[in-house]
């Protein structure tokens, strides 16, 4: 698994209060979204100006082994870890800086 993730300046400087496990999970999702967007973009030879963000899927699948490795738990302990993680993330708000307005805007991470 490629462990390099480039995050936007707004995301890095945003006001997020995530645990290490939550940050790992958000990074995993960001990687999945980026890969899906790149697959669409390059398969259509599309450019950023014409890219249709609505085409990015909103559901992603991960293997038990992949998630167990990420969270450093056994496959049998994974369900409990994911249950706690998703309960914690539901409704969490991130404050991301909008450079055009010079202020922070609220964004709900998961709902």
Strand content: 5-15%
The best one-word shape is flat
Mean pLDDT: 80
End-to-end Cα distance, whole Å, is: 27 Å
- Could you say which structural class the secondary elements and strand pairing correspond to? mainly alpha
Number of DSSP strands? 2
The major pleated sheet works out as: 2 strands, antiparallel
- Name the quaternary structure: single chain
Descriptive overview:
It contains four helices and two strands, in the order ααααββ. With 111 residues, it is mostly helical. It has a domain at 19-90. Strands 1-2 form a two-stranded antiparallel sheet. A hairpin with a 4-residue loop joins strand 1 and strand 2 (103-108). The longest helix has 24 residues, at 20-43. It is flat. The model has no long low-confidence stretch (mean pLDDT 80).
Condensed summary:
The chain has a two-stranded antiparallel sheet. 47% of the residues lie in helices and 11% in strands. A hairpin with a 4-residue loop joins β1 (93-98) and β2 (103-108).
